[in-house]
Amino acid sequence: MQMASTNIGERMGRSQELSDSKRGPVIGGHLGNKSIRDISWLLNIPRSTVSGIITKWKPLGTTATQPPSGRPRHMTGRGQRMLKRTVRRSHQLSAESIAKDLQTWCGLQMSPTTVRRELHGMGFHG
């Protein structure tokens, strides 16, 4: 049995966002009554990607990337790692002292309430 020769990097994992030059033909094929399978085969992109583009295009009328929904997080990944490291060093610190330490060490300015909320989200309770 012979396997189809494909570049394994194209089929595994998340890749970069699809360019506008590929999104346009997807919508063109859809408007030309081509099936998702046909469009996928013609453009050499996954069927799920074709379906996602069409699904997004129908209600919005555009294929442009939309901004993420929801409020931005207070802490970045770096800040969360610093917070974990601080708590692991000394389990008896209060949220107020942790907030002051983060301000002193890495310039992260946040309230003790935010520190408590972030710790709770990371699985630290008490």
Short description:
With 126 residues, the chain is an all-alpha fold. Helix content is 58%, strand content 0%. It has helices at residues 8-11, 20-31, 36-43, 47-60, 77-89, 95-106, 112-121.
Structure notes:
9% of the residues are buried. The chain is mainly α. Among the domains are: 20-60; 77-121. Helix 2 packs across helix 4 (47-60). The chain has helices at 8-11, 20-31, 36-43, 47-60, 77-89, 95-106, 112-121. Residues 71-81 have a biased composition (Basic residues).
Considering the chains and any ligands shown, give keywords for the structure.
rod-shaped, mainly alpha, 126 residues
What's the SSE blueprint?
Layout: H1 8-11, H2 20-31, H3 36-43, H4 47-60, H5 77-89, H6 95-106, H7 112-121
Helix pairs in contact: 2-3, 2-4, 3-4, 5-6, 6-7
Count of helical regions = 7
**Relative helix content:** 55-70%
Evaluate the radius of gyration.
Answer: 24 Å
- The residue-averaged pLDDT reads 80
Give the oligomeric state of the chains in this entry, treating copies of one chain as homo and distinct chains as hetero.
single chain
Percentage of residues in strands: under 5%
Q: Could you tell me the number of beta strands?
A: 0
**Major sheet description:** none
The succession of helices and strands, N to C, reads HHHHHHH
Domain Sleeping Beauty transposase HTH: 12-63
Organism: Staurois parvus
Pfam family, one: HTH_SB
Protein name: Sleeping Beauty transposase HTH domain-containing protein
